[in-house]
C-alpha cells in the first residue's frame, strides 16, 4: 500500500510529461506592468514586517481587489497627504535584520504609479514599534513632516520636505505621539501626567518651550488611547473606560472641550478595544468605535464584538452593529460611508453604512491574508 502511494503520483507525472512532449513548443508569456493603478476609491493596508520587508498595499474600496503595493523596510509606519496621492513611509533597513548597523529613512511614494519618488535620511532614534497612527504627522500646509522618536527617551524630529532633510529635534520628555495643529507650524504630544504639551517649530530649525494643557485624563484610572482622530479644530481621544474626549488644539494651549461616556447604563460591561479602534465621518459627525463586552484590566486591546455608531453632536449612541472580531477601523467618508475592519490575523471586512438606519453596518466583502502586524490606512478618492 505504501508503494502504491509513492508510484501513483510518479506515473501521473510521467503521463503529463508525455503529453507536453507532443504539444507545441512552449511560448513564454510577456510580462507587463501597468503604468498607473486602476481608477476608483482606495483603501491602504500596511503589513508591517519585523523580520523582513513591510508592504503598503492599495486595495479597491469597492471590492477589496488588489491594485498594487510598495515595499518598505522593517517596522514601517506611514501617513498620507490630504489629496491621498502621496504616502510617506518611515522604516528601518538593518544590515543584520535584528541587530547591528541600521539605516532609517523616510520614503515618499507616488500612490498612482506605486513608485518611490525619493528618500530622506532620518535619525536612528526614530520609533521602532508596532504600526499605529500618530507616529508620523504632516503639518497642515504639508511643508513639514513630524517623526516620533523613542530611544526610549522621547523626542520629535522635524523634517523639511522641500529641503529634504531633518532640521530640528524637539525633546518631549514623558510624552508620546505626534498631533499636528490644524494650522500653523505647531504640534502637540500626549503626556503621562494627563496633559497635552504643545510646541511651535520654525523653518529655521528652532522650537519653543512646551505649553501644557490642564490635566484632562488620569493615567492610572482611565488612560487614553494614543490613536486620536482629527475633527475640525479638535482631536477626538478615547479612554480605556469608554469616554470620548474632544480637545481643541486651535490655540497654543490645548483645551478640553467636552467629555461623555459611551456605555453608561449599558449591561455587559462594554468598553473600547483594539489598535486603531475609531473611525470618524466629518460629513455626518458620527464616530464609529470598536467595542467589546466583559471589559477588565488588560482587555483594552481585545477585538471588537460590536461597532457602535455615535452621534457626536448629541453625544448619543445611535446603533450597535454586531461584527466579526476586528481591531482596526477606517472610514471612506461620503453620503453613504464605507467602513473597513481588520483583525489581527489579516482578515479584512468591508461594510456599507446606512445613514437612514442609524448608521447600521452591512457586511459586503472580505479578504484574507492582508498581513501580520497589520494596520488599516486612510481611504481616499480616485488617484
TrEMBL record:
GO terms for cellular component: periplasmic space. It is found in: Periplasm. Residues 1-22 form the signal peptide. Its main location: periplasm. Keywords: Disulfide bond, Electron transport, Oxidoreductase, Periplasm, Signal, Transport. InterPro entries: Metamine_DH_Hvc, Quino_amine_DH_bsu, WD40/YVTN_repeat-like_dom_sf. GO terms for molecular function: aliphatic amine dehydrogenase activity. Coiled coil: none annotated. Disulfide bonds join 175-191. It holds the Pfam family Me-amine-dh_H. Belongs to the aromatic amine dehydrogenase heavy chain family. This is Amine dehydrogenase. It comes from Duganella guangzhouensis.
